[in-house]
Amino acid sequence: MTSPLFSKTIKHFNVLDSTNTEAENWLKEKKPDEGSAVLADFQTGGRGLGKNHWESAPYMNLLLSVILYPEFVKAEDQFMLNKIVSLSVKECVRNILDSNDVRIKWPNDIYVGERKISGILSRNSILGNHIMNTIAGIGININQTKFSANIPNPVSLKMITGNDFGIAEVLNELLKILEINYATLKKNKFAEIDKLYLDSLYLYNQQANYFANGKVFSGIITGVSNFGHLIVETNHGIREFDLKEIQFLNK
Fold it and tell me: pTM score, two decimals?
């Protein structure tokens, strides 16, 4: 491993219900070193946002949960953690593909073009006004080429390039970048992170169609609030949307 912090302890399982669940159980048992992670070859109950399920064929993709202790981050700034994890995955995929067509789709997906290559599911434990621990769950499609028909737009590194990739290779690249971005967060360089995030945001400053409150409307994403709400400029003014309150439609 190339990352001194994020590779101290990695629990590797052939089969798990969920790497996030295993990480939660690990935290209940003891306090593992920061950067400790759970890695699985296959998940029987992989989680997505809300009630969504994360599909992954055995031994084909990266399924990872990383444990952090960002006690230096205030609860009101917790979406900064989502930003650095998203940026890390986006940069990892971009570096491997050598492509500028990799974007962060709010709130927790990574897209290559118009197709989803990665999902992120983070959970923060808060005490008072500070975050005590974070579990950052990450799934990246690497070598899988066939997905269920009900998954609308999946893609993998192999589907894009035609090549097989070593999961350890992708893991090492991701951990290296995550360490750099986490160090940037520790230095409270919020403005730098915000700029990188907005520059990477899918459909940022572009006219597109959305669905919310039973209606289709046109708008332009102008930013993301400190609380992680999507900010959209519409014909009827600026609107903010929380998780699951807005649906992206085809451009």
Answer: 0.93
